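Deliverable D4.2, example record:
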Amino acid sequence: MTGSMGNVTTILSQIESGDLSATDQLLAIVYDELRKLAQHKLAQETPGQTLQPTALVHEAFLRLIGSSDWNSRGHFFGAAAEAMRRILIENARRKKAIRHGGDKNRIDFETIEISQGSRSIDLLSLDEALDQLSEEEPQVAEVVKLRYFVGLTIDETASSLDISVRTANRHWAYAKAWLFERLSNDDS
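Output generated by the structure prediction step:
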């Protein structure tokens, strides 16, 4: 992350004390990074995704500003990860609703000629599995949220959660195996 990202904790304190201009400063610092992460996340979604990265960032930021009681940069990015996750889940649920054509097979005309080589993840199944993981291993689930939904590196995740890089790596490896097992069982 850039050097200005270190100012996030200071700006969060200013927001908490009621400084409205600090919200603009925070958005200016984190916007580009959140937008890149949103683009990355949306690229992994199934074809036919109508949510745009800018809309995802704006919606997540609005939700974050509504509850501005963060105590650190890590806490903020954890909240950002959770906000993006919730927005993507709500969007997936809305699309699966029958009144929104959830019972119809969606086709993205732009990708008909191009085969998607990777298996897409069912976001609703991931959400359910992540909720289970949160109950069993809350810190491991936070690692997943920061890595998968925000796109932080292992080093950034460790710093955000105030844990060692080795612990973050161990949690990430455990989470991947745990989620693979749960999501593989859902496919059968």
